[in-house]
Specification:
The protein is of the alpha/beta class. The chain is about 40% helix and about 20% strand. The chain contains 11 helices and 15 strands. Helix 9 packs across helix 10.
């Protein structure tokens, strides 16, 4: 009876074909010599030689004399698609923001279609998208989760020079092109305004997200400005578990109420709050009203404003940091197109200024002359 098992040389060749097509081996990566491959796979040198010869026949590798065999540059046909890998899609919170999408489409121009990939906050799902998209699209725009397993893939994509641009956050230890809002600069500007207004005890409401660069920049900016002005932070920083962001909304609201009550009713009360995102701002505004105080007369609030304004109670009462999502999307798309066109530069982070809108300045999107510099 004939065996249906593939020959040894064919099995070895198929393994390297899969590695090259998946990107685990990229252009220029060297393969073992005949002798080394024979020893690694436990086969004869003749079998190893035949496997490498098959890879050369397929055009996947090139023999470079004494330099051995290396993976050839692979020509790819354009798919006409760009992947948008998102940590989540939350349309009730306008995420991804419509102005971000408008900027991306403006930046892409007539190039291709945008393929949405919702990771649903699942690192394994995100990693799967990141591994698949280089084969299914011409480039990737990614709003990353920041999970360690996905970060390994992001670094691998950069190493292989897969067109990739990160949006609004740069995970720790990841080297990739990114276009982000200048969270640090915006925080400094807003905090300095509160201090100029005479505030000395400013509370901070934040999630504990050590792997999210935007959160770290906002928290770090708060701490730096307070330290530079000789102001205390002890007892004023309220950090919440990241799991509360998508947990029971009533529990979250109560947790924020308890934090705000403690801050404003202590023997040395906070007179202002800095909220790193709208979720805290909305809950804090509700808490202040329940306590019986007025905004901004009794308590001034600054918040990063990414939600639609109608989701905030009386948005004109709070100072808002309005990120320029349209600019982020447009710039990111153009950076990606340059990579798709073969223009490769070392990974860098492009920071887009935000706009600081004072309370009572109106509820329309800010004009450019309100931005910090």
């Amino acid at each position: 009876m004939l065996s249906m098992q593939p020959s040894r040389w064919r099995a070895i060749a198929d393994k390297y074909v899969a590695d090259i097509q998946s990107g685990r081996l990229g252009p220029g990566d060297r393969l073992p010599s005949d002798a080394a491959l024979a020893e690694i796979c436990g086969v004869s040198r003749v079998t190893a030689h035949k496997a490498l010869a098959e890879l050369r026949r397929l055009g996947l590798v090139t023999r470079n004399g004494r330099n051995g065999t290396s993976v050839s540059a692979q020509e790819r046909q354009s798919t006409g698609r760009v992947a948008l890998v998102l940590d989540q899609v939350a349309l009730q919170r306008d995420f991804p923001r419509t102005d971000l999408l408008a900027g991306i489409h403006e930046g892409l121009g007539q190039f291709g279609n945008l393929l949405w990939c919702d990771s649903e906050r699942d690192p394994e799902r995100e990693r799967n998208f990141l591994q698949r998209m280089p084969k299914e699209t011409d480039g990737i725009l990614c709003w990353p989760t920041g999970h360690a397993k996905s970060n390994v893939v992001l670094n691998d994509l950069t190493k292989r020079r897969v067109p990739l641009v990160l949006l609004d956050r740069v995970p720790k230890d990841v080297q990739a092109h990114a276009v982000v809002s200048d969270s640090s600069g915006a925080t400094h500007h807003a905090m300095s305004h509160l201090i100029e207004r005479g505030h000395r005890r400013i509370g901070l409401l934040s999630f504990d997200k050590p792997n999210v660069s935007t959160v770290q920049e906002r928290v770090g900016g708060y701490a730096q400005v307070m330290e530079e002005n000789g102001l205390p932070t002890n007892g004023l920083y309220r950090r919440f578990p990241a799991s509360l962001e998508f947990g029971d909304s009533e529990f979250f609201s109560q947790a924020v109420y308890d934090a705000v009550f403690t801050l404003v009713k202590s023997s040395e009360p906070a007179t202002a709050l800095f909220c790193i995102q709208d979720m805290f701002c909305a809950a804090a505004m509700d808490a202040v009203m329940r306590i019986g105080l007025s905004i901004p007369e009794d308590l001034e609030i600054v918040a990063f404003n990414d939600w639609p304004l109608h989701m905030l109670l009386r948005p004109w009462q709070v100072h808002r940091i309005y990120t320029r999502a349209t600019d982020i999307g447009r710039i990111a798309a153009k950076v990606l197109l340059s990579q798709i066109g073969g223009e490769w530069t070392e990974p860098s982070v492009h920071r887009v200024p935000a706009d600081f809108v004072l309370a009572d300045a109106g509820i329309n999107p800010p004009s450019p002359d309100l931005s910090y510099r």
